[in-house]
UniProtKB/TrEMBL annotation, chain A:
Pfam families: GFO_IDH_MocA, GFO_IDH_MocA_C3. It comes from Microlunatus endophyticus. This is Dehydrogenase. PANTHER family: BILIVERDIN REDUCTASE A (PTHR43377). Residues 38-125 form the Gfo/Idh/MocA-like oxidoreductase N-terminal domain.
UniProtKB/TrEMBL annotation, chain B:
InterPro entries: Gfo/Idh/MocA-like_OxRdtase_N (IPR000683), Gfo/Idh/MocA_Oxidoreductases (IPR051450), GFO_IDH_MocA-like_dom (IPR055170), NAD(P)-bd_dom_sf (IPR036291). It comes from Microlunatus endophyticus. Pfam families: GFO_IDH_MocA (PF01408), GFO_IDH_MocA_C3 (PF22725). Gene3D superfamilies: Dihydrodipicolinate Reductase, domain 2 (3.30.360.10), NAD(P)-binding Rossmann-like Domain (3.40.50.720). This is Dehydrogenase. Residues 12-125 form the Gfo/Idh/MocA-like oxidoreductase N-terminal domain.
Length: 336, 338
């Protein structure tokens, strides 16, 4: 099986390179042709590939010539579509970094291209593979909390621009915290609720945090209603301070007829306090969700079975994000 | 407007109207503050005073009025306005359990009646007096976390067992009855509210329903707030959480996580499973009623005013309207002193 990692714009590429390099049943290459255009001091290119002992190719054309069975797209969000279309045209399966795209139009085009080419399209939502979410989903599916009618989700993090400036570039990222963080919670709900469509979205946002550093929104609350009458609110704000001891976190609360379930996806940790750093210490442990996700994708490529989350679930979560921006713009609830 | 009715003298003579849920929190607090308490209620007054070993039961509202300086209205919501107005007409200062009125118009009328009579009126927004909340607000005011950007408040526990709470016509539902605490607090922290948006889920019917409402507020300052409230199945632990994110950091609390003592007796912990959270250390009701009592005698104005109580009902009412329209509703305060 020949796997190619396309672009290191999203630093999850490093985690995926690590996970892929643990597998001795694949051939692996990577390319990051636009690394020289990145902001000053931002790493990339052959230097990163070398860290993981991965063969580096100079261009996307070199990758297509090499003939991958599957690609993992870690480019800037707005460039997911052209890379996915090129891969599909060459019969290569696709794992795309989240969000699937920066517009419903682009997401739909990616889904269509992959379906027409008969290749798999999967979205990189590793939290689906976390121990916490798998335990929650088992309990939910077993009816432990009964019928769930409402959900509160939070995905708060530090401002991500300190590692990659494009995260706060409206054109390349698609927006700010609403784009970056709504989709993770929406994807978990997509999994729990079995892919039911959202019917209406109301959202508010602001730029009080980091107001002099970025143009995009940094705070956001997104309220969603689904076709099965489940309601959900997502706090997607980049509201963890720069000095917070970890990148952020993700929580989910399900209010059911038989109980209330709380999940903290990154609660498995050893913490403490460092006199040296003058800050809290935070050391996560447990199953490597990125590795589990990569394994699911590779299994799907090898066996032909359908992986999750698939392109259509990615399309549903992108639809929620687009509706959230329309709601912010109009100040009204948007019906889907 | 400065009060026309003179300050009360000590010991304060307090007349409670009602002997239901919150009366069981107010009576021991008043007694602890050294007040002389009379209780008038349609039923439950003898049991209440016997349980707490203090307070005198009286047979009519007129009798109550004749022997007190302050009336404490702890009736179900629909009766708040008429008892506030009756107390004002008799020249008595008033404490009213929240919400100040069943509607914002009722709250406005009650405030106007008290102003006209020259008596003081304070609403029981007791969350402002809970140690964890007043500590958080103190730090917000000090600027510890800079300018507020995003706030989240959640509150939930066993649903009320009395039927009137579940009749929206009487209680206003969970938003006006329970979530008004956090709506008030969101405004106290981040300032006036511009719009309120709300959704609600009801899982089951009537008294057996699990209710969860979710409210999204925008503030004039640009801050945004989430307020969530749950009435859950019997036996559910009362739990409150908040996270306040500002330009200089975050403040947070979770009543189920930050416990000074945990005892595992091998059986379910029954504390904090009713309509009130488990309260440790300083009683917020003693702090609240003590602050009101000082205001009634010679002390400074308390941290919560009748106008705050009115604003909270306006915000709650906007959220309730949003449930019907499916759209955000703008919050317009009428007659609030600057």
């Amino acid at each position: 099986m020949k796997i190619a990692v396309l672009s290191f714009a999203h630093l999850h590429a490093m985690s995926y390179l690590h996970a892929l390099s643990q597998r001795d049943d694949i051939e692996l290459v990577a390319t990051d042709p636009d690394h020289a255009d990145r902001a000053e001091g931002e790493s990339g290119g052959p230097e990163i590939a070398a860290m993981f002992g991965v063969r580096y190719l100079e261009s996307y054309d070199d990758v297509w010539e090499w003939g991958p069975d599957a690609v993992i797209i870690c480019s800037e969000n707005s460039l997911h579509r052209p890379l996915a279309e090129q891969a599909a045209a060459r019969g290569a399966h696709v794992l795309s970094e989240k969000p699937l795209a920066t517009s419903v139009e682009d997401a739909q085009a990616m889904v269509d291209a992959c379906e027409q080419a008969g290749v798999t399209l999967m979205i990189a939502h590793p939290v689906r593979f976390s121990t916490a979410f798998l335990e929650l989903k088992d309990a939910y599916d077993a009816g432990v909390v009964g019928t769930v009618k409402s959900v509160l989700g939070t995905n708060n993090g530090r401002l991500p621009m300190n590692v990659r400036k494009w995260f706060v570039d409206k054109e390349l990222a698609g927006g700010g915290s609403i784009t970056d963080h709504t989709v993770h919670v929406a994807d978990l709900l997509d999994s729990l609720l079995g892919g039911v469509e959202a019917t209406s979205v109301y959202a508010v946002s602001n730029k009080i945090l980091h107001s002099d550093e970025v143009e995009v929104e940094t705070g956001g609350l997104v309220s969603i209603e689904y076709a099965n009458d489940v309601i959900a609110t997502v706090d997607c704000s980049w509201s963890k301070p720069d000095s917070y001891p970890t990148w952020g976190g993700l929580t989910l609360q399900l209010v059911g007829s038989r109980g209330i379930a709380d999940m903290d996806a990154f609660n498995a940790r050893v913490d403490g306090h460092s006199e040296t750093d003058k800050n809290g210490l935070w050391f996560p442990y447990g199953v490597d969700a990125d590795q589990a996700m990569i394994n699911e994708f590779l299994d799907a490529v090898a066996s032909g079975k359908k992986p999750g989350p698939d392109g259509r679930s990615g399309l549903r979560t992108v639809s929620i994000v687009q509706a959230a921006y329309e709601s912010v713009r109009t100040g009204q609830t948007v019906t889907l | 407007m400065s009060p026309l009715v003179p300050p009360a003298s000590e010991p304060l003579r307090v007349g409670m109207v009602g002997a239901g849920g919150i009366a069981g929190a107010h009576l021991p607090a008043w007694l602890g503050l050294g007040a002389q308490v009379s209780v008038y209620a349609l039923d439950g007054a003898p049991e209440l005073t016997a349980y707490f070993g203090g307070g005198t039961v009286v047979g009519s509202f007129e009798e109550l009025i004749s022997q007190v300086d302050v009336v404490d209205v702890v009736t179900p919501t629909p009766f708040h306005r008429e008892y506030i107005e009756a107390a004002a007409a008799a020249g008595k200062h008033v404490v009213s359990e929240k919400p100040l009125g069943r509607t914002a118009a009722d709250a406005r009328a009650a405030i106007d009646a008290c102003a006209a009579a020259g008596v003081q009126l304070y609403p029981g927004h007791v969350v402002r007096f809970f140690s964890e909340y007043e500590t958080m607000h103190r730090e917000v005011e000090k600027g510890t976390i800079g300018e507020i950007a995003v706030q989240r408040f959640t509150r939930g526990g066993t649903r009320p067992d009395r039927a009137w709470y579940h009749d929206d016509a009487q209680s206003g539902g969970i938003i006006l009855d329970q979530m008004i605490h956090d709506l008030d607090f969101a405004r106290w922290n981040a300032g006036e509210v511009s719009t309120a948006f709300a959704r609600i889920s009801k899982n089951g019917e009537g008294l057996d329903a699990i209710v969860n409402a979710q409210v999204v507020l925008t503030h004039v300052s640009g801050a945004i707030s989430y307020v969530g409230g749950v009435w859950a199945r019997p036996g559910t632990t009362f739990r409150t959480t908040f996270e306040i994110a500002g330009t200089g950091g975050i403040l947070r609390h979770d009543s189920t996580q930050y416990k000074p003592v945990v005892i595992d007796g091998g059986t379910p912990d029954e504390s904090g499973t009713g309509l009130l959270p488990a309260m440790r250390g300083v009683s917020p009701f003693t702090t609240e009623l003590g602050e009101f009592a000082r205001a009634f005698t010679v002390g400074p104005a308390p941290r919560v005013s009748a106008e705050d109580g009115y604003a909270a009902t306006v915000i709650a009412e906007a959220a309730i309207t949003s449930l019907e329209t499916g759209q955000p509703v703008s919050v317009e305060l009428a007659g609030v002193a600057a």
